[in-house]
Amino acid sequence: MNKFMVTTAIDYVNGAPHIGHAFEKILTDVLFRHFKQRCDKTFFLTGTDEHGIKIQKTAATMGIEPKQLCDENSQKFKDAWALLDINYDKFIRTTDEQHKKIVQEIFEKLLKKGDIYKHKYEGLYCSGCESFLSPKDLDENGCCPIHGKKPELVSEENYFFKLTKYKDAIIKYIKENPDFIMPSFRANEVLNQLENIEDISVSRAKSNVNWGIEVKSDPEQVIYVWIDALSNYITALNYNPNGESGENFKTFWPANFQIIGKDILKFHSIYWIAILMALEVELPKTIYAHGWITIDKNKMSKSTGNVISPKTVMDAFELSEPDAFRYFMCVSAPSGKDGNYSDEDFKERVNADLANNMGNLLNRSLNMLCKYFDGNILEEHICENILTASSMNAIAKVKAHFDKVEISEAASEIINIVDEANKFINDNAPWTLAKEGKMRECGEVLYSIFDLMCKVAILIYPYCPNIAANMAQQLKIDINMKLDELKPKMIKAGKLIEKSEIQPVFLRLDSEFAVKK
Ligand code: MSP
């Protein structure tokens, strides 16, 4: 693989980021950092979705201009991602001039092609989804099943996109490309939704919604949020619908993975794909839908008052680095399934995996190396054994999981070899070997732990970049190593560490809980 691109959904800015938004950005960042270990040219795109009726209304309620609300809240997302070490290459805002200009051109192109047409329409609009719903989408109370609110009856003359024209091509594409929708159990859901699709409204009358991108050839209409929002994935790369696109588009498109939540899969695997087909642009390789994070098993919602931000968690546990939170978000849900955050689970899991299991193993092994060998690795300690095989196998398993966006499952593979190493050191008891004067055997046991921990540090790096860098520093390896460079017997003979250089890898969390009961 010589290039890799990943995108996230772009978040609405009518509120501040919460741990659900963070979950997606962390999963994507971990995936990205892993593929950076396998590939030289990489691009990670994220950003904020800033137009539409919801933002217009929120700003009006606050008595401020929509742009001011967008500027303030978009910055909150950037700040949160900085706090969580989200290593994106570009943060797009749909209010960026370049984005707006390209979206207008995309719209005009589809209009000219006849894939967009004007049509008088009456429909039920859910401002939560920023989408028209058909009566069969509603629950038994006539409400949107996702937002629990009654949609508004809207009657206007709008532009429509001929989604139905692309129905058969999309069905064929999904059936022929089993990796296109991940996890695969979601593909049937999309195929079912495709059965009932209709052409979709892609603009709103300016008299009803004015916070949006104007249709160039008809300024009384604004381009409705989904065509605006979805296009971000290519406007950010400087796609040009009428000529030569920018270098980034040529290098990175199509994206390898587009990471989104299960609630917006339909927009990505149907609407977005049809738009790309209409523009004759290559399709992304995989659309991956993650599940949702609940808090203490409850849906997060402003009305329940249980929305928590990543910063709340970090502050409550006095974390100066985001590694533990990143790790927990990744392991909180099996691939594509819903996960849950609770303070108790968070604390228990990271204390067990990162502090007791991984951190203590390295710490006590380094201390023994200092105690018995003055921190030196001797030529006679260098060996291969069962741990070498396990750690080399783990690399292949981790890669295979990441190919399927199985981020939680990949983490389990890493923790499994740490467990195995803990068992190995307890079974072989280097402290007893030293007491018995079996120094060569004692050194071999410690060596095999360090050699395994080199692999662990590099493999855990995408999840816990700071902890991994700390481990790498103590093991004297380069944290920016590619996965292909991981080999048996990476540690050479010589001084590994001074006692004074040994640092704990991760301190147990014992602070107060984040959610005050
Ligand atoms: N703006 C649209 C996406 C446009 S993409 C071209 C949107 N924004 S959102 O702010 O409502 O959601 C952004 C992402 O966060 C979505 O992928 C959504 O699934 C995800 N999540 C929002 N709440 C979440 C949880 N509680 N848990 C996990 N992910 C959640 O949709």
| Stretches with pLDDT under 50, minimum 5 residues | none
The helix content, as a percent range, equals 40-55%
Number of helices: 17
Number of strands: 18
* Rg over alpha carbons: 26 Å
Bound ligands, named by name, code or SMILES: 5'-O-[(L-methionyl)-sulphamoyl]adenosine
What's the overall average pLDDT, rounded? 95
The quaternary organization reads as single chain
Broad structural category: alpha/beta
How many strands, which pairing sense, and closed or not: the largest β-sheet? 7 strands, parallel
- In whole angstroms, how far apart are the ends? 49 Å
Tell me what portion of residues adopts beta-strand conformation.
Answer: 15-25%
Shape: elongated
Per-chain topology:
Layout lengths: L2 E6 L2 E2 L6 H18 L4 E9 L3 H10 L3 H18 L6 E4 L3 H17 L2 E11 L4 E3 L18 E10 L5 H10 L4 E2 L4 H9 L4 E2 L1 E3 L7 E3 L2 E6 L1 H11 L11 H6 L4 E5 L3 H15 L6 E5 L2 E3 L14 H7 L6 H9 L7 E3 L1 H31 L2 E2 L8 H18 L3 H22 L1 H6 L3 H22 L4 H11 L18 E2 L22
Parallel strand pairs: 1-3, 1-13, 2-3, 3-4, 8-14, 13-14, 15-16
Antiparallel strand pairs: 5-6, 5-7, 7-9, 10-12, 11-12, 17-18
Helix pairs in contact: 2-3, 4-7, 5-6, 7-9, 11-12, 12-14, 12-16, 13-14, 13-16, 14-16, 16-17
